[in-house]
Task: structure prediction
Amino acid sequence: MPEVSGLSQAPTHVAIIMDGNGRWANARGLHRTQGHAAGEPALFDVVHGALEMGIEWLTVYTFSTENWSRDEYEVSFLMEFNVDLLERRRDELNELGVRVIFMGDLDDPRIPPVLLDRIRDAEELTADNTKMSMVFAFNYGGRREIVDAVRSIVEDGVDSDAVDEGLIRQHLYIPDMPDPELVIRTSGEQRTSNYLLWEAAYSEYVVTEVLWPDFDRYELARCVEEYQARERRFGGAVDASLGDSSG
Ligand code: IPE
Ligand code: IPE
Ligand code: MG
Result:
């Protein structure tokens, strides 16, 4: 397979909302859970593509704080699938130089203890890797993350005058994680679904119609190219020279 490197200025951090597994399965007369299983090769192709492009942080939304509302069978499938995936893939990720980090509320008693063990194993095994940090947003909610940050600030007894954006950032789940320049959502849905509410304040969003199991490194590269054609303003004025044909 050809490589996808050579793109100019790869973003440092790409965050993905991997959506559309259920629809992918439904379209094939399969159970929703088979759509989740079909998302695994897509995820690992994206890991390879991200490494080739020199992306340093890759964050993937694997389970939201709202996903507990799905039926019990699907939720327990997803828990077991994560255990299984970490057991089967952690060595490969380690050999690729990927550091695995889980981001979310891991104190939730609904998370099976065996999954917490596998998470710890994968994080410990890969802790010293430096090629790319791969963040699994799991039992993650942007609102929960901000609530947790506020709680720990209050527990620290911080004076209200000392609360600013920098302090809140220091209390997010991964304080040294740079903000994603690019957030990709698959399956055509145009909403954040509680993803990285603080961190993605000025991220560029690229929505692709591709369902997650059909996503791959080439679609990743296409999304990155779409991002690279954007003008990021961060609240500043539109460049006056744009659209000025007199130069
Ligand atoms: C995303 O696919 C995976 C998870 C939320 C775990 P969905 O399961 O949401 O698939 P659709 O959106 O129903 O097609
Ligand atoms: C967001 O997708 C969560 C994950 C991809 C893990 P959902 O499918 O849960 O989001 P909604 O319900 O369509 O907003
Ligand atoms: Mg969905």
